[in-house]
Design a protein that fits this description.
The complex is a heterodimer of chains A (about 220) and B (about 120). In chain A, about 35% of the residues lie in helices and about 20% in strands. Chain A has about 220 residues and is of the alpha/beta class. Chain A has a seven-stranded parallel sheet with strand order 4-3-5-2-6-7-8, sandwiched between helices. In chain A, α2 (about 45-60) packs across α8 (about 205-215). Chain B is α+β, with helices and mostly antiparallel strands and about 120 residues long. Helices cover about 25% and strands about 30% of the residues of chain B. In chain B, α1 packs across α2 (about 50-60). The longest helix of chain B is centred in the first third of the chain and has 21 residues, at about 5-25. Chain B is elongated and about 55 Å long. The chains are: A alpha/beta (about 220), B alpha+beta (about 120). The interface between A and B is large, with 37 and 42 residues. β1 of chain A pairs antiparallel with β6 of chain B.
Chain lengths: ~220, ~120
C-alpha cells in the first residue's frame, strides 16, 4: 500500500516568499516616508548617468541614497559617490537580479531614517530583474535609442511591470532609425498605464520632466 | 544552440521550487517525489531542459532527487479594462492586442508570468 503513487496538491506560487518580504519592506519604508525606486535597464543604457543627473537636480532639496547592484565591480558606486550622496554597493556575485532580501541587506548600509529617496540601480539586463519584486514603490526602466525600438517585442515582461519608461540618448536619434511613435505604440499595448519620458542624459534634454515625475511620485 | 542568458536566474527559481516541494514532501511524509507538475508563464525565459538540469543538480541527495519536471506553459492573456473580455496576447505579432469584442486597446496582463506548482506525484 505504501508503494502506491500519491498525488499531492501543492498549489503554490514560487515567489510567494519574496513577495512577502517585498511587501513588508515597502510598508516599512512607507512608514519612514522613504521612497524606494527600482531602476532597471540593459548594460550601457544610462542607469548610472540618469542617477548622476537625478542627484544633480534633486539633492539640494531631497535627501538621496543609492544602492548599486553589480555582478562584480564597484565602478558605478564610485561614480555615484563622487556625485556626493551615500551609496551602498551590493555585489551580486553572479546573480543577475536583485530580490527583496538583498535590498534589505543593502538598506542596512544606509541611514534610511535620514533619507527621502533611495534609488536601487538593478543589475543590467531586461530579463531577470522583471521577475523579482524588490520592495520598491515604483519600477522605472530605461531604453536607450541605440538599442532599437523593437525591444518591447523581445522583453515584454519588463515593459509590462514598469511605471515609467525613460527613453535615453535622444541625442542619438539623428543617427538611428529608432521610431519613438512605433515604440510607444508597442509599449502602450503591453502596459497602458506606463509613462514614457524621453531624455538625453548627455544634453540634459527632458531631464526636468523626469525630475518632475520623481518629485511627484516620491511625495517631495 | 542553447544559450543560458543568466544562469543564476534559473538557480533562484529552481531553489524556490525545490524548497516548496520538500516542505510538502515532509508534511505528507512521502519517501520519494517522482514528478512535479508546474505551470510556467509563457513570458518566462527559462527553458524546460535547463530547468530540469538545474533541478537535477540541486535536488541531489534529497527526497526529490530524480523527480521529473512536468512543465505546462501558460499563455499570456489580457483582460480588457473596458468590457472585461479576456483574450490571448500573441507576442511576436506587432498588432492585434485590441479587445476582440469592443476594440478598446487598454488591456491588462492577467496571465502568462510567474511559476506555479500544481501538484506532486510521490511514493
Amino acid at each position: 500500500m505504501s508503494d502506491e503513487i500519491r498525488l499531492i496538491e501543492v498549489k503554490e506560487e514560487i515567489f510567494a516568499d519574496n513577495r512577502k518580504v517585498a511587501d513588508d519592506l515597502r510598508e516599512r519604508l512607507q512608514k519612514k516616508k522613504t521612497f524606494l525606486l527600482n531602476l532597471m535597464a540593459s548594460p550601457g543604457a544610462g542607469k548610472t548617468s540618469l542617477i548622476v543627473k537625478t542627484i544633480a537636480g534633486l539633492s539640494s532639496d531631497i535627501r538621496l541614497g543609492v544602492i548599486e547592484a553589480d555582478i562584480d565591480s564597484m565602478v558605478d558606486a564610485e561614480t555615484v559617490l563622487q556625485a556626493g550622496v551615500p551609496v551602498v554597493q551590493l555585489r551580486t556575485g553572479g546573480f543577475c537580479h536583485v530580490d527583496a532580501s538583498m535590498v534589505n541587506k543593502g538598506l542596512e548600509g544606509l541611514a534610511v531614517e535620514e533619507l527621502d529617496l533611495v534609488i536601487l540601480e538593478n543589475v543590467g539586463n531586461l530579463v531577470c530583474p522583471a521577475e523579482f519584486d524588490t520592495g520598491a514603490h515604483k519600477n522605472v526602466m530605461i531604453l536607450s535609442v541605440p538599442e532599437g525600438d523593437d525591444k518591447p517585442l523581445k522583453y515584454p515582461l519588463m515593459f509590462s511591470i514598469c511605471d515609467v519608461l525613460i527613453v535615453n540618448k535622444l541625442d542619438y536619434m539623428g543617427f538611428s532609425d529608432f521610431n519613438l511613435g512605433k515604440m510607444s505604440e508597442r509599449v502602450f499595448r503591453l502596459n497602458p498605464d506606463i509613462q514614457i519620458i524621453p531624455v538625453s542624459c548627455k544634453t540634459g534634454d527632458g531631464i526636468e520632466n523626469w525630475l518632475d515625475w520623481l518629485r511627484l511620485a516620491s511625495g517631495q | 544552440m542553447s544559450v543560458v542568458k543568466c544562469s543564476m536566474h534559473e538557480l533562484s527559481v529552481i531553489e524556490n521550487i525545490l524548497k516548496v516541494v520538500l516542505a510538502h514532501a515532509v508534511k505528507h511524509r512521502v519517501k520519494r517525489v517522482l514528478a512535479i507538475h508546474l505551470e510556467v508563464g509563457e513570458l518566462s525565459d527559462l527553458e524546460d531542459q535547463w530547468m530540469q538540469h538545474y533541478f537535477d543538480y540541486l535536488s541531489k541527495g534529497s527526497r526529490a532527487e530524480k523527480a521529473r519536471l512536468v512543465i505546462e506553459r501558460v499563455a499570456a492573456r489580457f483582460r480588457c479594462a473596458q468590457c472585461g473580455e479576456t483574450f490571448p496576447f500573441v507576442l511576436d505579432q506587432d498588432r492585434g492586442t485590441c479587445c476582440p469584442i469592443c476594440g478598446a486597446s487598454d488591456g491588462r496582463l492577467i496571465a502568462g508570468q510567474g511559476y506555479f506548482i500544481k501538484n506532486l506525484e510521490a511514493l
